[in-house]
């Protein structure tokens, strides 16, 4: 069941949902809440200077070195961020969200007005029961020649609240497959978050998918 504006506001009043800083009147929608773009951006590095020379950086999600492959830019209020054609960055939400109820999760979506500007905001994702923290926003300038300027504070995405069929305990909410939750809240969830388990990544790197399925078969 998707929560309406009245239901969302009631959950906020009872403390089951929180936003820090609090919401303003522009953000409440009939059955969603718009979130604003924050001040922090993570920019992929494309090259580095080594003793051998200038080396292109390949981002390997299984290497465990994600933090080393991004520069972080933190703007001041009133500053803007210009995306180059085809550039991809990761922004953050201005508000931190807190889901404190055992029966509530969210789905994150882009606002259509952002996509119409030539930006791709790939946001369809789940916000788990019990999550507290800022959210990461992957943003791509899809144009070939046009610089696109974005401002911290713009409403770029929205969360839709959904009531789940049965309560989930805080312990169960932290369990993602065989691993505890990757993200521990805060704006460093992307850079500082946990990687997937090493034994899983090792089997993937070696191409041993059959062994992965066998060794970690889901007990029913």
From TrEMBL:
EC number(s) recorded for this UniProt protein: 3.5.4.13
Keyword Flavoprotein applies: no
Top-level division of the source organism's lineage: Bacteria
Cited InterPro entries: dCTP_deaminase, dUTPase-like_sf, dUTPase_trimeric
SUPFAM superfamilies hit by this protein: dUTPase-like
GO process terms (BP): dUTP biosynthetic process
Gene Ontology molecular functions: dCTP deaminase activity
Enzyme's top EC category: hydrolase
This protein's UniProt keywords: Hydrolase, Nucleotide metabolism
Stored CDD domains: trimeric_dUTPase
UniProt KW Hydrolase keyword: yes
PANTHER family from the UniProt entry: DCTP DEAMINASE
UniProt name for this protein: Deoxycytidine triphosphate deaminase
């Amino acid at each position: 069941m998707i929560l309406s504006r009245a239901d969302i506001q009631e959950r906020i009043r009872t403390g089951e949902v929180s936003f820090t800083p609090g919401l303003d009147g522009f953000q409440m929608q009939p059955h969603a809440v718009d979130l604003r773009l924050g001040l922090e951006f993570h920019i992929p590095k494309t090259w580095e200077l080594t003793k051998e020379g200038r080396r292109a950086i390949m981002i390997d999600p299984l290497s465990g070195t994600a933090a080393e492959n991004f520069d972080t830019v933190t703007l001041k209020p009133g500053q803007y961020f210009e995306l180059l054609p085809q550039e991809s960055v990761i922004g953050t939400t201005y508000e931190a969200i807190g889901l404190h109820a055992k029966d509530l999760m969210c789905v994150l979506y882009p606002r259509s007005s952002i996509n119409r500007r030539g930006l791709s905001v790939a946001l369809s994702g789940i916000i788990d029961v019990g999550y507290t923290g800022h959210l990461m926003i992957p943003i791509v300038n899809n144009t070939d020649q046009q610089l696109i300027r974005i401002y911290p504070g713009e409403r770029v995405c929205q969360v839709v609240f959904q009531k789940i069929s049965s309560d989930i305990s805080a312990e169960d909410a932290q369990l993602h497959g065989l691993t505890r939750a990757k993200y521990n809240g805060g704006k460093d969830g992307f850079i500082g978050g946990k990687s997937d388990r090493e034994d899983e990544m090792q089997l993937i790197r070696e191409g041993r998918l059959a062994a992965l399925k066998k060794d970690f078969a889901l007990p029913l």
